[in-house]
Amino acid sequence: MIRHTFRAATCVLSPGVRCFSDSSVGEVTSCGRTDLTHLTRQASLYVHWPYCLRRCSYCNFNKYIPRENKDNIMTECLQRETETLLRLSQVSRITSVFFGGGTPSLAHPSTIAAVLDTVSKQARLSDKAEVTLEVNPTPVGMSKLEDFCHAGVNRFSIGVQSLQDEDLKILGRDHSSHHALQTIEEARRMCPGRVSVDVMFGRPKQTVESWENELSELLNVCDDHVSLYQLTLERGTQLFRQVQQGDTSVPADDVTAEMYQCARETLHQHGFLQYEVSNFARHNAVSHHNMSYWKGRQYVGVGPGAHGRFVVPGEGGVAREARTQTLEPDVWMREVQQRGHGTRRRIQLSHLELLEEVLVMGMRMTEGIHHEHWELFSHELGLYEIFGSSVEVQECLQSGKLVLDERGLRCSWDGLALLDSMLPALLVELERRISPGLRRENHADGATEKTSNSR
Question: Which of 171, 237, 385, 415 lies 20 to 30 Å from 36 when distance is taken between CA atoms?
Answer without folding.
Answer: 385
